[in-house]
Amino acid sequence: MSRRRTVTLVAAGLFCALGVLGPWLAPEDGIQNHLGETLAGPSGAHPLGTDYLGRDELSRMLIAARSSLEIVLVVLGTALLVGALVGVGAGWRGGLLDTLSMRVVDVTVGIPQFLLALVLLGVLGPGMVSVMIALAAGGWMAYARLVRTEVMVRRHEPMVEALWLLGARPCRILGRHVLPAVLPPVLVLLSTEAGATVINVATLSFLGLGVPAPTPEWGGMVVQARPYLQSAPWLFLLPAGAITLVVVALNLVAERPARWATARRGTRSAAQAPPAPPDSDGDCLLTVTDLTVSVHTATGQRPVVDRVSFTVARGETLALVGESGSGKTMCTAALVGLPPGRADVTGSARWQGRDRK
């Protein structure tokens, strides 16, 4: 294990451990005022000093970790549950349910998540429960779209179609053959969204719409420390540093499931591909020419990938970049023979000199 990965896992694990054990490890309650000890520097009695009301800063930092962890777990759990249910239903059943679900997602995803949270908090008022509701309401769409796409691609695989024709129950097919394959990309999204949620909670508290005083929360502690940047800089640096460390650690942790997902897909594609003949195109491994994918809609055929051409040389990495819904997934799914069932694919693809239409 590399040194960076070790540091990352330790930092993420420490955040989780402090979130669980913080209130019991705190030497004081972090709420009661001690006006005779305001803005005291680090000492034996107060290892991280005291704030402007004489409250022990170490205790407040530990209790604030619990607040952040609780919000992150509830927000991500709620968003994942709602998004997964919508995505599985839309991707597996298709038809009118898929159309209605995705139209709701398309309309909702057009509103920035943080802006939606601000609007909801303006109605609900500040508070920990209000923050959880506001952030979860704007975060489920990403999971719905991801799960729906992954389930739809695997719904039309030959193995799944065969199980369906043999009379296997849908719950069994989903539980044993579809959802396990969806798990790696979902873990990647969860890992990245965890860091974003920590930032959003701190930002809402910074704006006065998050966790209300006197409950300690890192974003609120940053706001309260601003008037004392010169006289007691540690009051600002400690919570700001904690937010930075946790967000960086959570984002780096996301690399592990991302590599897992890539490895699983790469192994699966290699196992399904027939043996390729010797390379007749020199160093060019893949040549795609005029790839077009059209799907059937109520108003007729609609192209979602239109005459895409590219080449990939040996040892080269090619990235397909575009906004959500631009056709990246549809393009790659068509190349490996996994387009949606109601899609027409035209064009040509040559893999190591062999035509793979």
How do the helices and strands line up, and which of them pair or pack?
Blueprint: H1 3-25, H2 57-93, H3 95-109, H4 113-124, H5 128-137, H6 140-155, H7 158-165, H8 170-206, H9 218-225, H10 234-253, H11 255-272, E1 284-297, E2 300-313, H12 328-335, E3 343-351, E4 354-355
Antiparallel strand pairs: 1-2, 1-3, 3-4
Helix pairs in contact: 1-2, 1-10, 2-3, 2-5, 2-6, 2-8, 3-6, 4-5, 6-8, 8-9, 8-10, 8-11, 9-10
Descriptive tags:
single chain; 357 residues; alpha+beta; 12 helices; 4 strands
Describe this structure in words.
Helix 1 packs across helix 10, helix 8 packs antiparallel against helix 11 and helix 9 (218-225) runs antiparallel to helix 10. The protein has a four-stranded antiparallel β-sheet, with helices on one face. The longest helix has 37 residues, at 57-93. Strand 3 and strand 4 form a beta hairpin. It has helices at residues 3-25, 57-93, 95-109, 113-124, 128-137, 140-155, 158-165, 170-206, 218-225, 234-253, 255-272, 328-335; strands spanning 284-297, 300-313, 343-351, 354-355. With 357 residues, the chain is of the alpha+beta class.
